[in-house]
Specification:
Length: 731
């Protein structure tokens, strides 16, 4: 089956005033006419084609539009004739728009093809693209967060269909709220920042005010065969036209029903016609389509390619570079008839022999240097867990300043495969996913990362390092769908402030709830600015798709923050545990101590911090610092400080294994913090939040922390947890 494709089409708003107001209409109604096709809920069948069509004309706070209603109605008829199950909606306010997207998103999960078409007003604000419901009352640019629908929500949904999801935006970019001025700066709502605007710094602040001389939506970048079509290229304006439909929608309507017209050619034809008709407007599409043909009217011929052979060749290009035996074995199991089977068997034997010899050296010496050398050379080896436990024990008992020395240990022999062929590429999505099945469980991050860079996929959770999709800590669209049946959430979006407050406790990362709380209270002074600033600080407003310059700057800054957190999280556990930097240990334990209920524990933790800082300051990675930090963890953090919060966010952890259940019904896990080799035993903050939300808080880094004292639990290293188990033979 060909790769799924998401396409989003937006339609431009057009003038609707009397002839004597033509000039004013061109300035004001040059905004978005966006027609959106929404799918009805159907019984899932192999050929499901769904569409949601929305035409917003009767705006309540800005001049009404005429042509969006025409564009939406005509597009709904066309798609209906093509066999799409179409839901045609008109004049949606915010809550009904949200509900329509929830229904469409649920239907899209089992659909083959999905199209979204919206006609109405749309703006760019703060580097993001927004669709405006008819009830929007935007008194300042910051209100857009609570009053408008983020384009990224539609793109998230467009990832879901199996074959195609279409997003089309016929958008004129002039500001429909041009008379609405920002209170502080007096700037137009949708205008972009001036070149003189200060760049975003690491300190959260309110959104940058915009200059009034530049207009246009921000460009987007999408994968997973999602196609986003703009009536005019990002940063330019679309014409409204003088007929029933806009130039863009009119051209699209003339060709969308043409049989066997491949989508790429469909939009090329529309591009050329609009350019010829207007002389100024140049439509644009964003996204990467698969090599296989995709049609809105018609089906692609099934390519006569050997998906299995393509998958084997593709997987081999990555597998051949790894020293992880488990990945090599998965390749052999997935492709038992492969010509590389003999090479795989030989390579596995070589690696096993080398590791066996290395482990014999470790068992003879049982030294810090031996265990560390083994872990460096064989990070995926059979004895890794035993080596880590033994190394932790030796580090804990090591004397300050004790030398570790060097050890000569043989590493994995170089591979003797034949030279690799040219880089393999394929447009066969089945082959890509079959190859991914071999690689996705690999602990060799270089293998997984290189594959994700070549074949990124949000749908299959395959995101390359540095991706803004991977950067986004929370997917608001997923939260919208998950909470769709929560009565408090629905009441919140209906304007019930009490329901908003209750919903925020249940879904603390669903940032839109906080915005709606401000909206339901009439947006008292500072409410929205504070909410947006806090959401940005926590990374909840990271833009996954838009690529305006301000968003690039903002995302780069947040990426640096995340990198610093990931680097330190293995060394600092809620300001209590550190085994690297002495100053961090001192500051962290001091913070924990100040909150500890026991003065005796405070003295013990302070002494541990002082010892750790003293040793680690000069030898940050030495055994002395590790030993001191370990004592601080086991005494001050785990037992003494009864109300210390621990970073327990699942996003900070890896190598997670379920161990059992607590007496209160919480799942207990063994895991490592990213960047730290030591294993701990504890809970996951996301799970605790559902059962005991009062025990969960958000740290300054935006990650969730758990109050272990409130849960009646001790935070332990895995080794200490094992020692507490009956019949444990660990010292």
């Amino acid at each position: 089956m060909p790769a799924h494709l998401g396409i989003f089409v937006l339609a431009s708003s057009r003038p609707v005033f009397m002839l004597q107001d033509l000039v004013r209409r061109i300035a004001v109604l040059g905004c978005v006419a966006l027609s959106m096709l929404v799918s009805t809920i159907l019984q899932a069948t192999a050929g499901d084609r769904i569409a949601l069509v929305v035409g917003n004309s009767n705006y309540r706070k800005v001049p009404k539009l005429i042509n969006p209603a025409n564009d939406a109605a005509d597009m709904a008829m066309s798609l209906g004739r093509l066999g799409y199950s179409v839901r045609h909606l008109a004049d949606l306010d915010y809550n009904h728009f949200r509900q329509a997207l929830i229904e469409f998103g649920n239907a899209a999960k089992t659909a083959d093809k999905a199209v979204i078409f919206f006609a109405g007003h749309g703006v760019e604000m703060d580097g993001k693209n927004w669709l405006i419901p008819v009830d929007a009352e935007i008194k300042s640019e910051i209100d857009v967060y609570a009053e408008a629908i983020n384009l990224e929500t539609l793109i998230d949904i467009s990832v879901m269909p199996k074959i195609i999801g279409l997003v089309v935006l016929d958008a004129c970019r002039n500001d429909p709220f041009e008379t609405t001025k920002v209170a502080a700066a007096g700037r137009a709502l949708s205008s972009r920042p001036s070149k003189a605007a200060a760049p975003v710094s690491g300190t959260p602040r309110s959104p940058t005010p915009f200059a009034a001389d530049t207009r246009g939506l921000a460009p987007v970048e999408v994968s997973d065969n999602v196609l986003v079509a703009f009536a005019a290229a990002a940063g330019t304006t679309a014409n409204d036209g003088t007929g029933r439909n806009s130039p863009y929608s009119g051209s699209l309507l003339r060709h969308v029903e043409t049989p066997q017209l491949e989508i790429n050619y469909l939009f090329r034809i529309v591009h050329d016609e609009v350019w010829k008709e207007t002389g100024t407007q140049e439509p644009a599409i964003y996204g990467t389509l698969p090599k296989g043909d995709i049609y809105l009217n018609g089906e692609a011929a099934i390519a006569s390619v050997d998906g299995g052979a393509d998958a084997e060749q593709l997987a081999w290009e990555f597998v051949r570079s790894t020293n992880e035996i488990a990945t090599l074995r998965r390749f052999a199991q997935q492709f038992p008839a492969s010509a590389h089977t003999a090479e795989i068997d030989q390579r596995i034997a070589q690696l096993q022999t080398a590791e066996t010899n290395a482990w014999k050296i470790v068992e003879r010496q049982k030294s810090l240097a031996a265990y560390r050398a083994y872990l460096d050379l064989y990070p995926f080896g059979e004895h890794v867990e035993s080596a880590r436990v033994a190394l932790a024990s030796l580090e804990k008992s090591a004397k300050p300043g004790q030398a570790t020395g060097q050890i000569d240990m043989p590493g994995p022999p170089p591979a003797s495969y034949q030279l690799a062929s040219a880089e393999t590429t394929t447009g066969n999505s089945e082959a890509v996913e079959k190859a991914w099945d071999v690689l996705k469980e690999s602990r060799d991050k270089s293998v997984v990362g290189r594959f994700a860079e070549r074949y990124p996929s949000s749908r299959h959770n395959r995101l390359p390092p540095g991706s803004d999709l991977a950067l986004r800590p929370v997917n608001s669209t997923e939260l919208m769908l998950q909470s769709a049946h929560d009565s408090d959430v629905n009441a919140c979006f209906d304007g019930d402030s009490g329901a908003c407050a209750r919903s925020i406790k249940k879904y603390p990362d669903y940032v839109q709830l906080q915005f709606q709380l401000c909206r339901s209270k009439g947006n008292p002074k500072g409410c929205m600015i504070n909410a947006v600033t806090e959401a940005r600080r926590r990374g909840l407003l990271v833009s996954a798709y838009t690529r305006s310059e301000e968003e690039k700057v903002r995302n780069r800054e947040y990426r640096r923050v995340v990198a610093r957190v990931n680097q330190n999280v293995g060394n600092v556990v809620s300001g209590v545990v550190s085994n690297v930097v002495g100053n961090v240990v001192s500051n962290a334990v001091s913070t924990a101590v100040s909150n500890a209920a026991s003065s005796a524990a405070s003295r013990a933790a302070s002494q541990a911090a002082s010892a750790a800082a003293s040793n680690a300051a000069s030898r940050s990675a030495s055994s002395a610092a590790s030993s001191a930090a370990s004592r601080a963890a086991s005494t001050a953090a785990s037992n003494a400080a009864s109300r210390v919060t621990i970073p327990s966010d699942i996003r900070l952890k890896e190598d997670i294994t379920a161990l059992g259940w607590t007496d209160t019904g919480l799942r207990l896990y063994r895991y490592r913090y990213k960047g730290d080799a030591r294993f701990y035993v504890g809970v996951m903050a996301q799970e605790v939040a559902r059962q005991t939300p009062a025990a969960v808080s958000s740290g300054v880094d935006g990650f969730l922390r758990v109050d272990y004292g409130l849960l009646g639990l001790d935070f332990l290293t895995y080794r200490d947890w094992i020692r507490r188990q009956p019949h444990s033979d660990i010292d």
